[in-house]
Specification:
Blueprint: H1 3-28, H2 31-48, H3 58-75, H4 98-111, H5 114-125, H6 130-137, H7 141-160
Helix pairs in contact: 1-2, 1-3, 2-3, 4-7, 5-7, 6-7
InterPro entries: RNA_pol_sigma-70-like, RNA_pol_sigma-70_dom, RNA_pol_sigma-E_actinobac, RNA_pol_sigma70_r2, RNA_pol_sigma70_r4_t2, RNA_pol_sigma_r2, RNA_pol_sigma_r3/r4-like, WH-like_DNA-bd_sf
Organism: Dactylosporangium matsuzakiense
GO molecular function, one term: sigma factor activity
């Protein structure tokens, strides 16, 4: 790779890495696996960087690479093993309940089946259209709609079962 290309690649990744990592974390629910998935996707991107001009929408292309790296990670048998003896300590809340709300949302997202969780993350947290989610996952739009509807039902039930004060407030983000 030429020096200018490498600089462009580094700058491209630097600007997008937090969002890519956030998506991977929300899909996988594990910090380390998310880092691995993003790393795998960015390694592939590095190898293909010279062909970036042939891609209509580079951001969408990279986003799809990260989501597919997450899906590949979930297919590995070790990905089904949970190695935590006890839940992690709760972080100190300096944002007036925001940490509790985020934890509640993440807890509810983890209750979703894999495909439904991925669809919710892509649709509502990444603000992707149904068509874009379908293209990213290689599924039909009707499948995406079905997963969305089922996930929203499950999330609604999960939020209703949370203890008082743990519900997420409307308009708050993860």
């Amino acid at each position: 790779m030429q020096v200018d290309d490498e600089r462009e690649y580094v700058e491209y990744v630097r600007l997008r890495l937090p969002r890519l990592h956030r998506v991977a974390y929300l899909v996988l629910g594990d910090e380390h696996r998310a880092q691995d998935a993003v790393q795998n996707a960015l390694t592939t991107l590095y190898k293909r960087w010279s062909g970036r001009g042939q891609v209509d929408n580079l951001d969408a292309y990279v986003h799809t690479m990260v989501v597919r790296a997450c899906l590949a990670d979930q297919r590995r048998p070790w990905a089904r093993v949970l190695l935590r003896a006890e839940p992690p300590d709760r972080p100190v809340d300096e944002a007036g309940g925001l940490v509790d709300e985020r934890l509640a949302i993440r807890q509810c997202l983890r209750r979703l089946p894999e495909r439904q969780r991925i669809v919710v993350v892509l649709r509502f947290l990444c603000d992707m259209s149904i068509a874009d989610v379908a293209a990213t996952l290689g599924r039909s739009e009707n499948t995406v709609k079905s997963h969305t509807a089922a996930a929203l039902r499950t999330l609604r039930d999960a939020f209703e079962s949370l203890p008082a004060g743990a519900e997420a407030q409307p308009g708050r983000s993860l």
